[in-house]
Amino acid sequence: MALQGVGLQTYKLNNNIKSLLFLLLYPLLITTTYMAAAGVLLMRVWYETARDGHDFNYSSALMTVWDYWYVPYLFIFGLIALVYYYNLNRLDFPDGERPLTKQRAPKAYTILETLCISRGLTMPTFIVRDHKSYNAYSWGLTPDTYKIVVTSGLLNNLGPAELEAVLAHELTHILTGDTRLLFLTGTLSNIFRTLANLFWPDEEQTDSLLQSSDSSYQASGEEAQSTLWHLVFAIILKLGNLGALLTACFVSRKRIYMADAGAIELTKDPAALARALNSAEAHMWGFNHEHDIKPALFHYRNGRETARHPSIEERLQAIQRYAPYAATTGLRR
Asked: Partners of 149 in the beta sheet?
């Protein structure tokens, strides 16, 4: 039965709009964190200046900081540019991964090749990773570095229709630029996390703050106050880090849904995608990967990381919303 094209296209449009809205949270997050951190530092200067009997115009100083609102963007996007340039032409093969050729896996290679031809896409590097779980991911920044990785468990055990659905899902991530988008959101999260950890008070500073309330502790009040200001500044960066992580999770979830919709558009077989999702859920077997790769996995389930991936139930429900007729052909678990 033909796909209900209007429903699918409307779903994809809504998903793209929501993804864009989530991405617009980054400027708000960066500017808010910058102004809050600067405000705390200026408040410390104000406090120390007033203690010494001098005047300090806090509002004027804060407005001067606002005049340089672009500074954090120059810093952050400068770091992103460096990381992007470093990874631009890298095509890594971690331990356990090896290229798949048409001679080694003719059926799987032909399926991916056919999908690429249908969309006029250069064939990405096709790789198998030795692991008994059923999983896959796509990665890369340019056509020369795009790669689709499947586990040996998925490659050897899924039927042709289910394998095609998984490969179409991963190919959609490349077609829609998700591999670059997830690289961007992941790098932003890493920058916020690094800054938050860099400025977090060490154990000695924290102990000095806690012990300063003890009358037997002879450390100067100035040292405790300095540590307190440092702690408040670090907490603001931690909150910024949390905001960056949550935003990356929201974007990752939306792109997973989009890749599912793209897979159905490519294969015209939502039931095959449903069966592949159920198989991946049933055959996890502890498949772990680097932190940056986890959002790109076909399926990932972990108590602390569930926000990055919708559950299988949520993904099946999304498929049913734009392909309701498929419920009788394998979508329901």
From this structure: 127, 137
- In whole angstroms, how far apart are CA 205 and each of 22, 196, 197, 202, 216? 37, 16, 14, 5, 17
Strands 125-129 and 97-99: antiparallel
Q: How many residues does the chain have?
A: 333
Question: At 104, is the secondary structure helix, strand, or coil?
Answer: coil
- Could you tell me the pTM of the whole model? 0.82
Quick one: 140 and 262 in the same domain?
Answer: yes
Residue at 296 is within a domain: yes
- Give the DSSP per-residue string, 123-156: PPEEEEE--SS--EEEE-SSTTT-EEEEEHHHHH
**Cα–Cα distance between 332 and 81 in angstroms, integer?**
44
* Domain contains 291: yes
In the chain, the amino acid numbered 7 is G
Tell whether 135 and 268 lie within a shared domain: yes
Boundary residue ending a domain (230, 248, 266): 248
* Type of residue at 29: L
Of 9-13, 43-47, 57-61, the one with minimum mean pLDDT is 9-13
Amino acid at 275: R
> CA nearest 280: which of 170, 146, 118, 127?
170
* Per-residue pLDDT at 123: 92
Report the pLDDT averaged over residues 21-47.
Answer: 88
- The strand pair at 136-139 and 125-129 is best described as unpaired
Please compute, for residue 104, the number of CA atoms within 13 A of its CA located in the half-sphere on the CB side. 10
Instruction: Please report how the helices 25-51 and 221-267 are oriented relative to each other, as an axis angle in degrees rounded to 10.
Output: 180
Same domain, 230 and 172: no
Nearest to 190 by CA among 70, 32, 37, 82: 82
**Number of structural domains found in the chain:** 2
Instruction: Convert the pLDDT of each residue in 112-157 to its tens digit.
Output: 999 999 988 899 999 998 888 899 999 888 888 899 999 999 999 9
The one-letter code for the residue type at 4 is Q
Q: Cα(306)–Cα(299) distance, rounded to whole angstroms? A: 10
